[in-house]
């Protein structure tokens, strides 16, 4: 078996190299990766070399949304066998801190998260991974769908943080990949009136195909004014996924009295002016999202049972050998790409 990986060698530069085959520990499995999604964070690292305090130093492997097939198991592995298809949850946590012990392991300060410096990602043929973070996929779920469990988990966590329930009205700001999986999650949780807002019509068209009640194109409509005509009381839940200063500020005006705002997208600005008087007068809650926790099994079952169809969000697929071209395509065609995946093998 030969193991190759794509390394980011500089800003907007990538090259393929042959690397050693991983050696598995007793509680690990060796996985032949088959699909890796291109996430916005991967693109950001390639373009800028850092995200906040996380700085790429030296050659670096990107990619954290992945799935594949088990080809070898450690001697103490009990739940997986050779031939099993698995989706990998990309964060390995300490298991000992207060956050891990209280179930909020996504907040573990010592998490080793794929493609978050200094930890390499998964744009490679083979990876060794802990059994307890490799989740078995049912036979009828493809590994392409398996690679999409990671972004879906973000959307499901956002819906859970907003306590979206049967009959709720929801506004989702941003119709990129995370906005669209949040739409799918909110529908699965029972929301019956979902408005999706974006400035790109192609993304809004995708939102309608995936089940949005309606869309608002913010490039030619005032979002607050348009939604107030649709729902004068405001939305039960407003979920911000665009990571834009403007859309974050709009959440205070769109949420109903007693409703909930969920902040998912990370804006370029650290400090943003915000109308807290509106929030206080409405006694609205503000929740935030950092990755996800305890979601993968539920997300896999939701896809397996047909409650959520993630396959519709993939707009572009590239072969492994064309990884640099795939990234450049995503960078240069942001208006056309909703979700791109790389087929490893």
From TrEMBL:
The keyword Signal belongs to this UniProt entry's keyword annotation: no
Keyword terms, alphabetized:
Metal-binding, NAD, Oxidoreductase, Zinc
Protein species of origin: Defluviitalea raffinosedens
Q: Which InterPro entries match?
A: ADH-like_C (IPR013149), ADH-like_N (IPR013154), ADH_Zn_CS (IPR002328), ER (IPR020843), GroES-like_sf (IPR011032), NAD(P)-bd_dom_sf (IPR036291), SDH-like (IPR045306)
Domain Enoyl reductase (ER), by residue range, is 9-338
Q: What does the similarity note say?
A: Belongs to the zinc-containing alcohol dehydrogenase family.
Please, which domain of life does this record's source organism belong to?
A: Bacteria
Q: Single GO molecular-function term?
A: oxidoreductase activity, acting on the CH-OH group of donors, NAD or NADP as acceptor
Q: Name one Pfam family in it.
A: ADH_zinc_N
* Required cofactor names: Zn(2+)
Q: What is this protein called?
A: Alcohol dehydrogenase catalytic domain-containing protein
């Amino acid at each position: 078996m030969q193991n190759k990986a794509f390394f980011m060698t500089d800003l907007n530069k990538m090259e393929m190299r042959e690397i050693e085959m991983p050696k598995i520990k007793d509680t690990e499995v060796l996985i032949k990766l088959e699909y890796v999604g291109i996430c916005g964070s991967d693109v950001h690292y390639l373009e800028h070399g850092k995200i906040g305090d996380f700085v790429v130093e030296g050659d670096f492997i990107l990619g954290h949304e992945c799935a594949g097939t088990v080809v070898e198991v450690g001697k103490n592995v009990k739940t997986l066998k050779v031939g099993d298809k698995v989706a990998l949850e990309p964060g390995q946590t300490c298991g000992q801190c207060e956050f891990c012990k209280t179930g909020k392991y996504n907040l573990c300060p010592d998490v080793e998260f794929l493609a978050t410096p200094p930890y390499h990602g998964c744009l490679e043929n083979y990876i060794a991974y802990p059994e307890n973070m490799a989740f078995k996929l049912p036979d009828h779920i493809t590994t392409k769908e398996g690679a999409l469990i990671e972004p879906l988990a973000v959307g499901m966590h956002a819906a859970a943080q907003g306590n979206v329930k049967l009959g709720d009205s929801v506004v989702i700001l941003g119709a990129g990949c995370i906005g669209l999986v949040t739409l799918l999650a909110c529908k699965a949780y029972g929301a019956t009136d979902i408005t999706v807002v974006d400035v790109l019509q192609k993304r809004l068209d995708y939102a309608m195909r995936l089940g949005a009640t309606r869309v608002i194109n913010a490039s030619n409509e005032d979002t607050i004014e348009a939604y107030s005509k649709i729902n004068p009381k405001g939305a039960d839940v407003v979920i911000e996924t665009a990571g834009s200063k403007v859309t974050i500020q709009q959440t205070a005006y769109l949420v109903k009295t007693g409703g909930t705002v969920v902040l998912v997208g990370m804006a370029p600005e650290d400090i943003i002016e915000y109308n807290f008087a509106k929030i206080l007068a409405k006694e609205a809650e503000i929740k935030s999202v950092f990755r996800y926790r305890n979601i993968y099994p539920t997300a896999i079952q939701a896809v397996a049972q047909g409650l959520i169809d993630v396959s519709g969000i993939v707009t572009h697929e590239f072969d492994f050998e064309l990884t640099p071209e795939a990234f450049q395509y995503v960078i240069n065609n942001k208006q056309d790409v909703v979700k791109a995946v790389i087929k490893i093998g």
